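S.,

Sequence below, as promised.
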Amino acid sequence: MVGKAGEEYHLLDIEDVLAFQAEREIVWIVTARQRYMATQPLHQIDGRLRGSAFQRVHRNALVNVNHVRKMTPLTSQRWMLTLSNGQEIVVSKRQASGVREMLQW
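The prediction came back faster than expected:
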């Protein structure tokens, strides 16, 4: 995975990526230490990572389930995921059942 920080491009190990988050046209690659700007849109990243440890949790977020540390119910159909770096991401109603199934140990 390639991420951009300032004027530099970094090759990132996909296992070190906690999540991908879109903010309008910008997609951020979130790692434990910092975040990088992605060079591809979220839907392309999602397509490339199908069948991996990454799960779509919201229309603007993909999460590496290996870095999920806590699931907190917000309502009967919405969840808050806490990642290994402490970041929290809301799971949409549409994605809630798939996320629950994938995270069952």
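The first strand starts at residue 2 and ends at 5.

Coffee later?
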